[in-house]
């Protein structure tokens, strides 16, 4: 079921177009990654989705409710952590949640608070003051706050920023669990390895426009494989690869990566031996979301791969 739909979303500030004609759809039980370089329009887009700023043009529907004409009902479906979670450090985690539950008019708030605290694994520390919490604990408290209203759509902007590897792993598990329970999760992060591990689909925004939207598993599967070889001198190999029209990248004077199907590895090795290439080492390398991201966002005048 469709939870979030964005159509022709545009934001102009001072005559400058910050977000330009975005189209997106996020479904129930899906983790949707929103990627892009700094200044591409990610945070502005998120601020429009959560109703913090108004769009210049276009529409945003959450569970069928247009936030422009039915904002209250739309926002009831949303939980969000935008940048750093807002908490009162001099209060306990529990009193913070009580405060926000009252503001949001959460029915049976004590029961709901217990549920979200158990979910984010803060039961043992929930009555301690927030100023004693680690960064990871504060992020989990922020997630508990965002979940108080049982949102259909959860918006996360850089949720693991500053967390250590263990904190990132824990947060990833919580997000994946929410998606498995049917929550639609829209997440923006610059930690591409995490996005690769957690997202079902991703969109990449550059220069205010979405330049691609793809299924993560299919993208990584479709990227195929590469062979990384070390030789005495890559120039000895380059002219051979050009004759065969291989796609390759030179990493240094002795190392290069060649894109090919896994079934062609053995034939490639024989090819090198036949041409008296001294092969120091060879290994297979699979493309990552990070490489896909940089391929899409690289400047046209930047470094290019040979083809």
Summarize the structure.
Keywords: ATP-binding, Nucleotide-binding, Transport. The chain is an alpha/beta fold and 307 residues long. 35% of the residues lie in helices and 29% in strands.
CATH class (first level) name of the largest domain: Alpha Beta
CATH superfamily of the largest domain: P-loop containing nucleotide triphosphate hydrolases
Q: Please give the CATH architecture of the largest domain.
A: 3-Layer(aba) Sandwich
Helix proportion: 25-40%
**Order of strands, widest sheet:** 6-7-8-3-9-10
| Range of strand content | 25-35%
InterPro entries: AAA+_ATPase, ABC_transporter-like_ATP-bd, ABC_transporter-like_CS, P-loop_NTPase
Organism: Baia soyae
Pfam families: ABC_tran (PF00005)
Protein name: ABC-2 type transport system ATP-binding protein
Describe this entry's structure for a reader.
This protein is of the alpha/beta class. It contains 11 helices and 14 strands. Helices cover 35% and strands 29% of the residues. The strands form 3 sheets. It has a 6-stranded mixed sheet, sandwiched between helices. A 4-stranded antiparallel sheet has the order 2-1-4-5. α6 (165-180) links the parallel β7 (153-157) and β8. Residues 300-307 have low confidence and may be disordered.
């Amino acid at each position: 079921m469709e939870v979030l739909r964005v159509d022709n979303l545009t934001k102009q500030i001072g005559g400058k177009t910050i977000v330009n004609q975005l189209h997106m759809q996020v479904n129930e039980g899906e983790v949707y990654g929103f990627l892009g370089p700094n200044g591409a329009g990610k945070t502005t887009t998120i601020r429009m989705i959560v109703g913090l700023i108004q769009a210049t043009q276009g529409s945003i529907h959450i569970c069928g409710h247009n936030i422009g004409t039915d904002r209250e009902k739309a926002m009831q479906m949303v939980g969000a952590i935008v940048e750093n979670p807002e908490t009162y450090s001099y209060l306990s985690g529990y009193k913070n949640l009580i405060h926000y539950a009252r503001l949001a008019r959460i029915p049976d708030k004590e029961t709901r608070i217990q549920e979200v605290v158990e979910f984010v694994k803060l039961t043992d520390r929930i009555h301690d003051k927030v100023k004693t919490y680690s960064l990871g604990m504060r992020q989990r408290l922020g997630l508990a706050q965002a979940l108080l209203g049982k949102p259909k759509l959860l918006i996360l902007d850089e949720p693991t920023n500053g967390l250590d590897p263990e904190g990132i792993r824990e947060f990833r598990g919580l997000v994946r669990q929410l998606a498995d329970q049917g929550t639609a999760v829209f997440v923006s992060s610059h930690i591409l390895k995490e996005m690769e591990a957690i997202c079902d689909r991703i969109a990449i925004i550059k220069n205010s426009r979405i330049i691609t939207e793809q299924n993560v598993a299919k993208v990584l599967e479709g990227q195929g494989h590469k062979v990384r070889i070390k030789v005495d001198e890559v120039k000895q190999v380059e002219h051979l690869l050009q004759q065969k029209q291989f796609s390759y990248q030179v990493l240094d004077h002795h190392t290069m990566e060649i894109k090919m199907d896994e079934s062609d590895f053995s034939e490639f090795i024989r090819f090198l031996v036949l041409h008296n290439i001294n092969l120091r080492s060879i290994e297979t390398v699979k493309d990552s979301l990070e490489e896909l991201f940089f391929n899409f966002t690289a400047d046209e005048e930047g470094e290019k791969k040979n083809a």
